[in-house]
Amino acid sequence: MNKNNIKIGFIGAGYMGSGMALNLLKNKYDLSTFVHHNRKPVDKLIQNGAKEYPNIRELAKSCNVIIMCVTNTPIALGVIEQISP
């Protein structure tokens, strides 16, 4: 798959996730993010070229790769339940 055909959805913009997402943007990947409870890292990602989606389902529909960087397994399972019925 060509780098230009990869559309990455990133869920979880905390300390680790925001750094990972910024590196993807710096390497010219098409990156989308989901609203995070802390606006500061999301705003920085958007300033660097990320697109923001209002909900996880819309994000998942628009991407062919999804990266989750969330706190724990119950949160990850909750995200998966929202993405995949």
SS strand fraction: 15-25%
Summing up helix and strand content along with how strands pair, one would put the structural category as alpha/beta
Strand order of the largest sheet: 3-2-1-4
Mean pLDDT across all amino acids? 89
Question: DSSP helix count?
Answer: 4
Largest sheet: 4 strands, parallel
Helix residue percentage: 40-55%
Count of distinct strands = 4
- Secondary-structure element pattern, one letter each: EHEHEHEH
Shape assignment? globular
- Using only C-alpha atoms, the radius of gyration works out to 12 Å
CA-CA gap between termini = 27 Å
Stretches with pLDDT under 50, minimum 5 residues:
none
Short description:
With 85 residues, this protein is α/β, with parallel strands linked by helices. It contains four helices and four strands; from the N terminus they run βαβαβαβα.
Structural description of this entry:
- The chain has helices at 15-26, 39-47, 56-62, 73-83, and strands at 7-11, 30-34, 51-53, 65-68.
- The protein has 85 residues and is of the alpha/beta class.
- Strands 3-2-1-4 form a 4-stranded parallel β-sheet.
- Strand 1, helix 1 (15-26) and strand 2 (30-34) form a beta-alpha-beta unit.
- The longest helix has 12 residues, at 15-26.
- The chain is globular, with a radius of gyration of 12 Å.
- The mean pLDDT is 89.
What attributes does this structure have?
85 residues, alpha/beta, 4-stranded parallel beta sheet, globular
